[in-house]
Write a structure and sequence with these properties.
Blueprint: H1 2-15, H2 19-40, H3 50-73, H4 77-91, H5 100-114, H6 122-132, H7 139-150
Helix pairs in contact: 1-2, 2-4, 3-4, 5-6, 6-7
Length: 151
Amino acid sequence: MLRQTLNDTLKSAMRDKQSRAVGTLRLILAALKDKDIAARANGVSDGIEDSEILSMLQSMIKQRQESIKAYEDGGRPELAAQEAEEIVIIKGFLPAALEGDALLAVIDEVIAANGAESLKDMGPTMAALKAQYPGRIDFSQASAIVREKLS
């Protein structure tokens, strides 16, 4: 589903001569192909699932955020702007992010469902969040909240 959306969007961007979108989508599809090839070694012949694609997209956003900081520190605002444009394009493929009260409610729900009571239950709690809400949560932020609630 997501894989087809990426391909269709690339074709549309090529028709509309949107060079930044074309370049970004080609990078996404190349990373996806690398992940698919790596998954074949584990016996997955159909390619990775949408949840793994969403995780990959989140990683790509984090990489670009780090690049923006490096470019700004290095006095290269034009390159930082390009990275910011790519982030906007990539975010277009992610579902709406859970933030604020919605994020707290989801975390409370998962903690209750797993019966988590202490920090030793943090790993299974985070794994459940990742499985149930792929691409919808900033897991570094969620980790801090879960740690606080289980302390």
